Amino acid sequence: RVQLVESGGGSVQTGGSLRLSCAQSGTRPDCVAWFRQAPGQGHHGVAAIETSGHAIYYADPVKGRFTISQDAANNTVYLQMTTLKPEDTAMYYCAARSWCYPGDWYIWALYSYLGQGTQVTVSS
How far apart are the first and last CA of the chain? Predict the structure, then answer.
């Protein structure tokens, strides 16, 4: 079983930065991803990292602005967000599963373990 706890959300102005953290406990998952959900929308994959390898994936809207990384010693995955835009406003969720695959890392329904979410608000 895996437990995930997110932190680091908040409110910033356009162009600002935030770093989200996802602390994992229990069995270490092979794949940790960040999703976001804006009001009235579904869950969209933002980025994913293969914790036991080198694979990293990003959604097109965040490429070049967001960076996913991990601190394996502390079982924490980070999402560094820079050059934030109002359209980045959403609830951000950490999710984990036992495999990382480029063809489906962004599908919310395929993740077994989910965090409670942390709100990110970007004002113009």
Answer: 40
Spatial separation of the C-alpha atoms in residues 50 and 52, rounded to whole Å = 6
Name residue 61's amino acid: P
Helix, strand, coil fractions of the chain, as percent rounded to 5? 10, 50, 40
Of the candidates 120, 124, 122, 123, the residue with the CA atom closest to the CA atom of residue 37: 120
What is the distance between the alpha carbons of residues 33 and 106, in angstroms, rounded to a whole number? 8
With CA atoms as reference, report the closest residue to 32 among 62, 18, 53.
53
Q: What is the pLDDT along the chain (124 residues), one digit of tens a residue?
A: 889 999 999 999 999 999 999 999 988 899 999 999 999 999 999 999 999 888 999 999 999 999 999 999 999 999 999 999 999 999 999 999 999 999 999 999 999 999 999 999 999 9
Helix (H, G, I), strand (E, B) or coil at 14: coil
